[in-house]
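[Meeting: bench + compute handoff]

Bench side (C.D.) handed over the final construct sequence. Compute side (W.E.) agreed to return the predicted structure before the next meeting so the bench team could plan truncations. Sequence as handed over:
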Amino acid sequence: MSRGSRTLIALYVVVGLWLSFCTVRTWGAVPLWTTLAMTVASLAPVTGVVRETVIADERRAVAVLREREGRRAAWRDAAAAALAQAEVEAACCERWWTSCATEHDPGCAHRTSWGTTA
């Protein structure tokens, strides 16, 4: 939960308590409809607290999903790098053919030694 959310929740609690206090203090001294209106108003900040906690839960869920997607993207990047490396290694023989058999990587599996003739 962010600092702003915590601040809003604290303000909601303070306002709710103040409205509750005012409702209790005016009980019987004012018309009934005003007391009921104050009671409803003192419950309204509860909605704000619930809203802030739901938003915090959603932010947490989005952060988890982003982290998972980041891991998937890293896996895809690693797979793409492995595929590119395999293509580069396979291109060794292609370079050998196009360079008239003068350039061949020493680690190539298809390389034949110079002393043997087929």
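W.E. noted at the follow-up: The chain has a mean pLDDT of 78. C.D. will use this when planning the next construct.
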